[in-house]
Design brief:
This protein is an alpha+beta fold and about 160 residues long. Strand 6 and strand 7 form a beta hairpin. It is about 20% helix and about 25% strand. The chain has a single domain, classed as Peptide methionine sulfoxide reductase (Metal Binding Protein, Guanine Nucleotide Exchange Factor, Chain A, Beta Complex), CATH 2.170.150.20. The radius of gyration is 16 Å and the shape is globular.
């Protein structure tokens, strides 16, 4: 490794720390759900366990929720916490369900360096199940794209 590469990585790491999401104090507290891996495995399918508990990613274009157009609410598949309204869903062209706004207090954030450069990862505020990544290339009103693994969500149709 050259010094230039090392310094580039260190700069990316430092930028990632500055890129971290706002403090959770700005959102209301949600009661935590803490289970063992064995308990999670009984509640989730193997694919859901991989995504929600091991920070995996489902293949793009495989979720039926991409085509979901009805009014309703998207919930965490791990614990059932409401995360997004269908009013915030839009077609991003990425192959994953995408939203421009999350419900208040529904998400927590961290910085992920899996692809070397920092990305903002978000997870369910109740069970800390990995949902996806937030990008700053979404539509109005927020300019954000919450790119979600469909397998990490369930959908409840509005009555």
């Amino acid at each position: 490794m050259t010094r230039r590469t090392l310094f580039s990585w260190l700069a990316a790491f430092s930028a990632g720390r500055a890129y971290a999401a706002p403090a959770a104090a700005a959102t209301p507290a949600v009661g935590r759900l803490v289970l063992t891996d064995a308990q999670w495995r009984t509640r989730l399918t193997p694919t859901q366990f991989d995504v929600l508990r091991q920070h995996g990613t489902e293949r793009a274009g495989t979720s039926a929720l991409n085509a979901e157009k009805r009014r309703g609410t998207y919930h965490c598949a791990g614990c059932g916490l409401a995360l997004f309204s269908s009013a915030a869903k839009y077609e991003s062209g990425t192959g994953w369900p995408s939203f421009h706004t999350a419900l208040p207090g529904a998400l927590g954030f961290s910085t992920d360096f899996k692809l070397v450069l920092p990305r903002t990862e978000y997870h369910c505020a109740r069970c800390e199940g990995h949902q996806g990544h937030r990008f700053n290339d979404g539509p109005a009103p927020t300019g954000m794209r919450f790119c979600n693994n469909g397998v990490a969500l369930t959908f409840e149709v509005a009555s």
